[in-house]
Model the fold of this input.
Amino acid sequence: MSYKTCYQKKLFPKARNWISDAVKNLCRFYKKTIKFNYLCLFVVFFSSTAYAQTLRSSDSISAVSPKAEIENKIIETITATIAVPTDVKLRVVVYPFDPRIQVPHCLSGFNIKLPSQRRVQQSNRVMVQCDKTAQDRSWQMYVNTRVDKIYPAMVATRNINMGEKIDATNVTRQYIAERLLRGKHYKNLNEIQGARIKRRLSKGQQVIEPTVCYVCKGDMVSIEALSHHFSLKTLGKALNDGNVGEVIRIQNNRSRKVIYATVRDVGKVDIKL
Done:
């Protein structure tokens, strides 16, 4: 087909229109494609950011297991509830969970409820509640605990024979549960420093009042007679054992008279005139 024929049949203008329409459609396609690519980049960026945050949060959650978190929370709650003297400690034991129970993480935090009808005792059943888990559920369970008050007490570091003096080489201070204490015990070495053992103690045995004597039978003691105006001192012989505050019989060395005196310290007794 010749050029003249094409011109006469108006094919050139039609071809021009086809090309123009093709270019316009191509431009529209690229515009949509570019927008789509930007949208994809936007979605991918925020999806990766959210995924990274999810990983970080999951790592922080899994750092402490739910059972360990519950145990720490129970100990913290009970310790804050019970008031004890400064030299007494609390030991809270949380009994192991049933291994068949799978404890989920609690998003709202665990709530610990102690028995409300009575004081916290040695054995307690504690309620653990969770208001919201990852599955948007709530649950509760009971955990058994044991609470011990532990007191300072002096115990033998080795076998101590009868008649030996007490000092830092044969006794030490340890914390012992209240239920294991035997009789009147001593908290510090200075309470019994220099006193003597009345009966043999084995290693680890508590030093209690019946096992020691500040003044033992046959000891030479210092006797001090006290009055409001003067005091007198002399020596005497103890006729029986005694601890601080106890009244024992003493024989005066000079007069040979037997008197009653109160034990004040190791080797010392007082009488009031």
